TrEMBL record:
Pfam families: Cation_ATPase, Cation_ATPase_C, Cation_ATPase_N, E1-E2_ATPase, Hydrolase_3. One of its GO terms (cellular component) is membrane. This is P-type Ca(2+) transporter. Residues 26-100 form the Cation-transporting P-type ATPase N-terminal domain. Its main location: membrane.
Length: 1060
C-alpha cells in the first residue's frame, strides 16, 4: 500500500475514544445475532441507563472533534516568516531610530523622516491582517462538516422509545429507528426492515449516482464502503422506508469522522502556490544582493566615517564620525526600500481579484485568490464523474418496442441530457403516430410513476426517483396520439402535459410498492373504459419471468415464446453493455379480484394489497410491451473540453465512486478513452490501484485514466502521489467524501449546484454550473492572468533594479543623496501601481490553450531577461544620477536652458567631495527660486548640498517616474516591438500612465505634499530635460528586444535543423 493508504490508517486512529474496542468488530460481515451479542444489547429493549453511562465514559460523545487551530498570535508571527517582509521590517526599525535621532535636531526633514518608517509599518500591518484573515478561513470546511450531522434520533432505551434524543448522546450499542427523511445520526448496522424496502441517499459520502437499497444480510469482510449494503452511515439521508438499526460507531469513529480527520490532515500540508514559491526564491536572492551592495557601499565610503593614521606601519589614532555613519545607515535603508517592490503584493492581489471577476462571468467562483494563478500551471485534472462530466440527471437514451411479428423489435434513440422535455427528441419519430404498443409503453411509464418535473427558472428539476423522472420526460417527447392530442390542447404550457393526460385516462386506485425481491412496481388503474388494469415496470429479467405474452405493434397479444424472449434479452444485453440501466414495461387486464375494487378498505382486494408477499402472484401472467435504457448522460460540451485539455497538455483522470462499467462507458463517450482503446491497464477500481506495487508508474501513463469505486482515501492517495511526482493537480468533487482530496489538491474545485457545503468550504474554487468545461475555461483564464502577472512582476522588478542602481551610483560617486526612502516608497507603492495593474489587462494570447502547461519551477526571469533589465536598470541609475549632476554642474543641456532659477554652478569635483565643503576657502552660492520658494544660503553655503539639493532631487525623482512610465510600455510584450504591439492594444495602460503622472504632479504642486516628500515644482524647461533623459529607455529596450528575437530565431532554426 502506498503512503496515502498508510496515512489513512493513521487518520482513522484519530477517532480517540469512539474507536475503541468495537473498532475491530466488522459489523457488516456478521449476522444480526452476532452484532447484538457483541454489543450486548437486545433490539426490543435497547440499552439501560447504566449501560449508556458506562459506554459514554468509554467512547465519549457522538460528535466530531474540534481541532484547535493556531492562535492569532501564532498566525501574526507566521506572516513575518517571509524574506522580503523581514528586510522591510529591519529597514523600518533602522529608519525609525534614525528619524528619532534626526528629530531631536528638529527642522523640516523631521516630517519626511517619520513618514517613511510609518508607511513601511503600515504596509507590514496590512499584509499581516490579510494573511491572518485568509488563514482563519482554512478550517471552515471542518465546521461545515458538523452542520450535516443529525441533531436528533429516535432511540429505544430501557424498553421505551425516545423520539427526540439529541444525536450527540448516542453510544455504540444503541437501538435506533430510521424513517423517510431522517438524517442518519451515526454509523449503523441494519437489524430489521419495517417496510418492504429501505433506501438511503449516500452519494455525498460514497460518490454513487443513485440512492442505495439496504438489507439485513451480511457481506464479505473486505467489501468496500459502497458494497456495505447492511450499513448506513452518519450524515446520509433516508429516502424510502423505515428500519431498526444498531449503532456501531459514533463521533470520530464513523466514516464521516474519518473524512473529518483527513480534511484536518490535508489542511496541515497546504503548500505555497508556484508563484509564491518563485517570489520567496526571489526574496532570498534579493537579500543576498542587498547585503553585497550594502557591503560595497560601506567599503567604498568607509574613508568618510572612519579614518586612521599609520604609526610604525600599524594603524593608529582612529577617528569615527557618528553623523557620517548614520548617513550610510540611511543609504542602506534606501537600498532596501529601493530593491523591494513594496507595491507588488497589492498589485498581485488586485490582478487576481480582477481575474476572479472574469472567472465569475464564466461561472467559476474563486474562493482563494492565489488559486487563480495556480490554475494556469495545472497539469492534471482529477475529475469526479457524476454531476461534473455528467448532468447528474437521469435520461432515457434508448427504448425498445415490440415489432409487427413476435420475434421482431424496434429500437428508438432518445436525445437530451436533462429533465427538460424540450431538450432533444426521439430520432426518426413521427409525432402523433403512436401505435397501440407505443401507447401502452407511454401509459405505463407515465402512470406507474411517482416522480414529478417542474420548471425552476431556466431549467427543470425533478422530485422523486431520478429514473422515474426520466421516464416521464420520455413520455413527453413521445407526445400523444392524434386523437388525444386535440383533447389536451388546454395544457400546452404544462411540462408534463402528456403524463397528466394518461393519468386522467388511467386513474390509479392502488399501488404495489417496489421491493428488492420481485424488483418491480405495479399500479392498479381504473381506465376510462371502466376496466381495471395492472401496469408494471421493473427489472427486465424479472418481468420476463412473470410474463406469458407480448403485445405487438398493432396491439394484438401473442404468446411469449423462447425466440421472442431471446430477442428481448439480446436487446437488454446490448443496452446493458453500453452501461444503460434498463427497465421493462408490462401490463395485465384480467384482474377478477379487483373487478369491483375502487380503493375501499373493506373490499377483499384491499387485504391482498396489505401483504407484500401477494404482489408476485398479482403480477403474474403479464403482457410484456417493451423496455427503456436510462443513464446519467454526459454533458454535451464535455467532449470538446476534454479535447481542449489534450491540446493544452493537461491530462484528465476520472475518479468516481460509481461502478466500473458505467464509468468506462461514459469515459469512452466523452473522449477520455478512444472507442476501441484497450483500457485494461488504464481503468482500475480504487482497491485495485492501492494493491499495485508501483502506483506512481501507473499514474505516469500518458492519456486518460479511470478509477472507479473510489473511496476518500483512494482519492487522497492519488492526489498525494501526483503532487509528489511534481504535478500541479486540480481536483473536482461535490460530496463529503471528496473534501479531503479537495483540501489536499493544488486546486480544489467544488460543485455549486450539487455540491455539499463541506466540499465548497474545502475548495479553492466553486463551479456555479457544475460543468467540467467551465474548469477548462478557467484554466485558460488562469494562464492569461499568469502571463500578465509575469509582465507586471518583471516590470516592477526592472524598475527596482533601476532604483538600486541609482542609490549605488550615488554612494559610489560620493555625491549627495539623490533619492530619499520616502520618495522611493511613493514610486514603488503609488506611481508604479496603476501601470503594473493595467498590465494585468493585456489581451490574452489566442493560442494560450494550445501550449503545454508551464512547469511549476518555470523561472520568472530568464538569464536573457535579467540581462535586459540590468541594462535598463543601469540606464535608470545613470539617468537619475546624471540629471542630478547636470543641474549642479551645467547651465544648459542639449540646448535646454536650466539657468532660469538662478542656481549656482559647482564643479563635479566639488559635488563629489561635498563633505569637505567647510574646508573650502571663499566658497559661496547665490539664492535660487523653485516655484514660489526662495532658497538662501547666507548663513551656511555648504547647506547648498543638503537643503539646496531639493531641485536636483525633484529632477531625479521625475526622471525615475517618467522612465518607469515609458518602461511599462516596454512590458506590454516580452519580445514584441511596440511597432507590432502598440500601446493602444491595452488602453488601460495609457489611462494608468496618465493617473501616475497625475499623482506625481499632485505631490509636486501641492505645497504640503511637496514638503513631505522633500521636492519642489519644476519649470517647463526642466520638464523638457526630464523627457529628453527618460525617452531613450524605449529605444534601448527595442534594440534589446530585436537582439532577443534574432537570437531566439537562430536557436529555433538550430533545434529544427538538429531534429531533421
Amino acid at each position: 500500500m502506498g503512503k496515502g493508504g498508510q496515512d489513512y490508517g493513521k487518520s482513522e486512529s484519530l477517532g480517540a475514544k469512539s474507536s475503541s474496542s468495537h473498532e475491530g468488530f466488522a459489523a457488516w460481515a456478521k449476522d444480526v445475532g452476532e452484532c447484538e451479542e457483541n454489543y450486548q444489547v437486545n433490539r426490543e429493549y435497547g440499552l439501560s441507563a447504566d449501560d449508556v453511562q458506562k459506554r459514554r465514559t468509554k467512547y465519549g460523545w457522538n460528535e466530531l472533534e474540534k481541532h484547535e487551530g493556531p492562535s492569532v498570535f501564532r498566525l501574526i508571527l507566521d506572516q513575518f516568516n517571509d524574506t522580503l517582509v523581514r528586510i522591510l521590517l529591519v529597514a523600518a526599525v533602522i529608519s525609525f531610530v534614525l528619524a528619532w535621532y534626526d528629530g531631536e535636531e528638529g527642522g523640516e526633514m523631521e516630517i519626511t523622516a517619520f513618514v517613511e518608517p510609518l508607511v513601511i509599518f503600515l504596509i507590514l500591518i496590512v499584509n499581516a491582517i490579510v494573511g491572518v484573515w485568509q488563514e482563519n478561513n482554512a478550517e471552515k470546511a471542518l465546521e461545515a462538516l458538523k452542520e450535516i450531522q443529525s441533531q436528533q434520533a429516535t432511540v429505544i432505551r430501557d424498553g421505551r422509545k425516545n423520539t427526540h434524543l439529541p444525536a450527540k448522546e448516542l453510544v455504540p450499542g444503541d437501538i435506533v429507528e430510521l424513517r423517510v427523511g431522517d438524517k442518519v445520526p451515526a454509523d449503523l448496522r441494519v437489524l430489521t426492515l419495517i417496510s418492504s424496502t429501505f433506501r438511503v441517499e449516500q452519494g455525498s459520502l460514497t460518490g454513487e449516482s443513485e440512492s442505495v437499497s439496504k438489507t439485513t444480510k451480511a457481506v464479505s469482510l473486505d467489501t468496500d464502503i459502497q458494497g456495505k449494503k447492511c450499513m448506513v452511515f452518519a450524515g446520509t439521508t433516508v429516502v424510502n422506508g423505515n428500519c431498526i438499526c444498531l449503532v456501531t460507531q459514533t463521533g470520530m469513529g464513523t466514516e464521516i469522522g474519518k473524512v473529518h480527520s483527513q480534511i484536518h490532515e490535508a489542511s496541515q500540508s497546504e503548500e505555497d502556490t508556484p508563484l509564491k514559491k518563485k517570489l520567496n526564491e526571489f526574496g532570498e536572492v534579493l537579500t543576498a544582493i542587498i547585503g553585497v551592495i550594502c557591503a560595497l557601499v560601506w567599503l567604498i565610503n568607509v574613508k568618510y566615517f572612519l579614518s586612521w593614521e599609520y604609526v610604525d606601519g600599524w594603524p593608529r589614532n582612529f577617528k569615527f564620525s557618528f553623523e557620517k555613519c548614520t548617513y550610510y545607515f540611511e543609504i542602506a535603508v534606501a537600498l532596501a526600500v529601493a530593491a523591494i517592490p513594496e507595491g507588488l503584493p497589492a498589485v498581485i492581489t488586485t490582478c487576481l481579484a480582477l481575474g476572479t471577476r472574469k472567472m465569475a462571468q464564466k461561472n467559476a467562483l474563486v474562493r482563494k485568490l492565489p488559486s487563480v494563478e495556480t490554475l494556469g500551471c495545472t497539469t492534471v485534472i482529477c475529475s469526479d464523474k457524476t454531476g461534473t462530466l455528467t448532468t447528474n440527471q437521469m435520461a432515457v437514451a434508448k427504448f425498445v418496442a415490440m415489432g409487427s411479428k413476435a420475434n421482431a423489435v424496434r429500437t428508438f434513440k432518445v436525445d437530451g441530457t436533462t429533465y427538460s422535455p424540450l431538450d432533444g427528441r426521439i430520432q426518426d419519430w413521427h409525432m402523433g403516430r403512436l401505435d397501440a404498443n407505443l401507447q401502452m409503453i407511454a401509459k405505463i411509464a407515465a402512470v406507474c410513476n411517482d416522480a414529478g418535473i417542474e420548471q425552476s427558472g431556466n431549467h427543470y428539476v425533478a422530485s422523486g426517483m431520478p429514473t422515474e423522472a426520466a421516464l416521464k420526460v420520455m413520455v413527453e417527447k413521445m407526445g400523444l396520439p392524434d386523437g388525444l392530442d386535440r383533447g389536451a390542447l388546454s395544457g400546452r404550457g404544462d411540462a408534463l402535459r402528456c403524463c397528466r393526460t394518461w393519468s386522467k385516462l388511467e386513474r390509479r386506485i392502488a399501488t404495489l410498492e417496489f421491493d428488492r425481491d420481485r424488483k418491480s412496481m405495479g399500479v392498479v388503474v381504473n381506465s376510462s373504459s371502466g376496466r381495471k388494469s395492472l401496469l408494471v415496470k421493473g427489472a427486465v429479467e424479472n418481468l420476463l419471468e412473470r410474463s406469458s405474452f407480448i403485445q405487438l405493434l398493432d396491439g394484438s397479444i401473442v404468446e411469449l415464446d423462447q425466440a421472442s424472449r431471446d430477442k428481448i434479452l439480446q436487446s437488454l444485453h446490448t443496452m446493458s453493455s453500453s452501461a444503460l440501466r434498463c427497465l421493462g414495461f408490462a401490463y395485465k387486464e384480467n384482474l377478477p379480484e379487483f373487478a369491483t375494487y375502487n380503493g375501499d378498505e373493506d373490499h377483499p382486494a384491499h387485504q391482498l394489497l396489505l401483504n407484500p408477499s401477494n404482489y408476485s402472484s398479482i403480477e403474474s401472467n403479464l403482457v410484456f410491451v417493451g423496455l427503456a435504457g436510462l443513464r446519467d448522460p454526459p454533458r454535451k460540451e464535455v467532449r470538446q473540453a476534454i479535447e481542449d485539455c489534450r491540446a493544452a497538455g493537461i491530462r484528465v483522470m476520472v475518479i468516481t465512486g460509481d461502478n466500473k462499467s458505467t464509468a468506462e462507458a461514459i469515459c469512452r463517450e466523452i473522449g477520455v478513452f478512444g472507442p476501441d482503446e484497450d483500457i485494461s491497464l488504464k481503468s482500475l477500481t480504487g482497491r485495485e490501484f492501492m494493491d499495485i506495487s508501483d502506483t506512481k508508474s501507473h499514474l505516469r501513463q500518458s492519456g486518460g485514466l479511470l478509477f472507479s469505486r473510489a473511496e476518500p482515501r483512494h482519492k487522497q492517495e492519488i492526489v498525494r502521489l501526483l503532487k509528489e511526482d511534481g504535478e500541479v493537480v486540480a481536483m473536482t468533487g461535490d460530496g463529503v467524501n471528496d473534501a479531503p482530496a479537495l483540501k489536499l489538491a493544488d486546486i480544489g474545485i467544488a460543485m455549486g449546484i450539487a455540491g455539499t457545503e463541506v466540499a465548497k468550504e474545502a475548495s479553492d474554487m466553486v463551479l456555479a454550473d457544475d460543468n467540467f468545461s467551465t474548469i477548462v475555461a478557467a484554466v485558460g483564464e488562469g494562464r492569461s492572468i499568469y502571463n500578465n502577472m509575469k509582465a507586471f512582476i518583471r516590470y516592477m522588478i526592472s524598475s527596482n533594479i533601476g532604483e538600486v542602481a541609482c542609490i549605488f551610483l550615488t554612494a559610489a560617486l560620493g555625491i549627495p543623496e539623490g533619492l530619499i526612502p520616502v520618495q522611493l516608497l511613493w514610486v514603488n507603492l503609488v506611481t508604479d501601481g496603476p501601470p503594473a495593474t493595467a498590465l494585468g489587462f493585456n489581451p490574452p494570447d489566442k493560442y494560450v490553450m494550445k501550449k503545454p502547461p508551464r512547469r511549476s519551477d518555470d523561472s520568472l526571469i530568464t538569464a536573457w531577461i535579467l540581462f535586459r533589465y540590468l541594462v535598463i536598470g543601469l540606464y535608470v541609475g545613470i539617468a537619475t544620477v546624471g540629471i542630478f549632476i547636470i543641474w549642479y554642474t551645467h547651465n544648459s543641456f542639449f540646448g535646454i536652458d536650466l539657468s532660469g532659477d538662478g542656481h549656482s554652478l559647482v564643479t563635479y569635483s566639488q559635488l563629489a567631495n561635498w563633505g569637505q565643503c567647510r574646508s573650502w576657502e571663499g566658497f559661496s552660492v547665490k539664492p535660487f527660486t523653485a516655484g514660489s520658494q526662495e532658497f538662501r544660503f547666507d548663513a551656511d553655503p555648504c547647506d547648498y548640498f543638503l537643503t539646496g539639493k531639493k531641485k536636483a532631487m525633484t529632477l531625479s525623482l521625475s526622471v525615475l517616474v517618467a522612465i518607469e512610465m515609458f518602461n511599462s510600455l516596454n512590458a506590454l510584450s516580452e519580445d514584441a516591438s511596440l511597432l507590432t504591439m502598440p500601446p493602444w492594444v491595452n488602453p488601460w495602460l495609457l489611462v494608468a500612465m496618465s493617473i501616475s503622472f497625475g499623482l506625481h504632479f499632485l505631490i509636486l504642486y501641492v505645497p504640503f505634499l511637496a514638503q513631505v516628500f522633500g521636492i519642489v515644482p519644476l519649470s517647463l524647461n526642466e520638464w523638457l530635460l526630464v523627457l529628453a533623459v527618460a525617452l531613450p529607455v524605449i529605444l534601448i529596450d527595442e534594440i534589446l528586444k530585436f537582439i532577443g528575437r534574432c537570437s531566439s530565431g537562430v536557436r529555433r532554426s538550430g533545434v529544427k535543423h538538429k531534429a531533421e
